[in-house]
Amino acid sequence: MSDLFSVDDAPDRPSAPLAVRMRPRTLDDVVGQGHLLEPGSPLRRLVDPTQGPAGPASVVLWGPPGTGKTTLAHVVSGGTGGRFVELSAITAGVRDVRAVMDAARDDLALHHRATVLFLDEIHRFTKAQQDALLPGVENRWVVLIAATTENPSFSVVAPLLSRSLVLTLRPLDDDAVRSLIERAVTEPRGLDGQVELTPDALEHLVRLAAGDARRALTALEAAAGAALHAQEREVTTEHAERAIDAAVLRYDREGDQHYDVASAFIKSMRGSDVDASLHYLARMLEAGEDPRFVARRIVIAASEDVGMADPTALLTAVAAAQAVQLIGMPEARIVLAQAVVHLATAPKSNAAYRGIDAAIADVRAGHAGTVPAHLRDAHYPGAGRLGHGKGYVYSHDEPHGVAEQQYLPDSLVDREYYQPTDRGAEREISSRLERLRRILRGR
Asked: Residue 311, exposed/middle/buried by CB under 10 A (0-12, 13-18, 19+)?
């Protein structure tokens, strides 16, 4: 347990990282999260209780790394006028939480002083550890500021969520990152004008930051260090590339990013954008996603989105899934890419998918009906006396291999579940199906 501005983290310490030294000191200095900083907002009320009639609310700050969760907590710590305590879910346990709650209750009762508890990485707390926060939050012994990079709906227990406001932080846009970098170059607590950035170097840092302010400032510090070490004042793209040579991929295999990227992957194949499909495939594989998971999604898409418009798509998808099992990564990426290209460029139809769902809906609604007598099993003793199989016409004995005959139950005789499109192979299927239905119905 420690104060946020302990010696190790002091922003004014000359040897502190640039990202620490450049932390905003007021809410007005925070960039990129304007939707959370309106007058009367929960964060404004934490810093200045006169901002609204209601008391300060506990909040869960949810957002990707580098978007300002810890920064907002630091700003709040300087404006509450009360006791500020920080815990990290990586190192703290239930005993630490209870100690904070007991001290907060005593402070409130004896000194009428509020306690703000900043809990970083709350998603790492177990259910029992999160439950230990409930009495303090519910009775407002503490105002909780919890930070998480994972979707709180999955990572925070429901009772705690219901007692808190979830505030979503967005990745910084390029203009916000650019502004932070330029400010860090010139401000005395930053690099104090010791270096200058070329336009290309600035854009390189902005692009590779990928909306992460901490990453942008860390890369700037490294690039500036490389330039100063070479006794050069101008930071070039070469210095920047030396400092950071690849964009960090933001992807959580067990959280919302997993589902978001997988969803974008499937929708890109469905939308026939082969380039986007390959992009999301690459993101999943580079993030360490199980290639078997990817293969399963491709198999499903082959039937759900391509279907009978290109019946070979399912063959390719199943073959790819089997090949992935056989060869593994990294070669499996080639097989998966082939299947993705096939699906993305294939004509699309969800007619088979819609057909089975429509049939299931009828069955669930009780529209099953009885099986026509001529279609029932006639192989067991006594079936003939019941009329089973009587009048059945063997299709292969008919001129076109199709008999004029009723197959659906009487209550569903006019149902047409499968409605082929005019795309790909279904164009031919559509005309053939029309002829088949005419023969079956004797028209």
From this structure: middle
Quick one: three-class SS letters along the chain?
Answer: CECCCCHHHCCCCCCCCHHHHCCCCCHHHCCCCHHHCCCCCHHHHHHCHHHCCCCCCCEEEECCCCCCHHHHHHHHHHHCCCEEEEEECCCCCHHHHHHHHHHHHHHHHHHCCCEEEEEECHHHCCHHHHHCCHHHHHCCCEEEEEEECCCHHHHCCHHHHHCCEEEECCCCCHHHHHHHHHHHHHCCCCCCCCCEECHHHHHHHHHHHCCCHHHHHHHHHHHHHHHHHCCCCEECHHHHHHHCCCCCCCCCCCCHHHHHHHHHHHHHHHCCCHHHHHHHHHHHHHCCCCHHHHHHHHHHHHHHHHHHHCCHHHHHHHHHHHHHHHHCCCCHHHHHHHHHHHHHHCCCCCHHHHHHHHHHHHHHCCCCCCCCHHHCCCCCCCCHHHCCCCCCCCHHHCCCCCCCCCCCCHHHCCCCCCCCCCCCCHHHHHHHHHHHHHHHCCC
Around Cβ 117, how many Cβ atoms within 10 Å? 25
Tens-binned pLDDT, residue by residue, of the chain (443 aa): 444 333 345 555 667 899 889 888 888 888 888 888 888 787 787 776 555 555 567 889 998 888 888 888 878 766 656 688 888 888 888 888 889 998 989 888 888 877 888 998 899 898 988 999 998 898 888 888 999 988 898 889 999 999 998 999 888 888 999 999 999 999 999 999 999 999 989 988 888 787 888 888 999 999 999 899 889 999 998 888 776 655 445 555 555 677 888 999 999 999 999 999 999 999 988 877 889 999 999 999 999 999 999 999 999 999 999 999 888 888 999 999 999 999 999 999 999 999 999 999 999 988 888 888 888 887 777 767 778 888 888 999 888 898 888 989 988 888 999 999 999 998 899 988 998 998 888 87
The token pair that represents 344 in the structure block: 């993305």
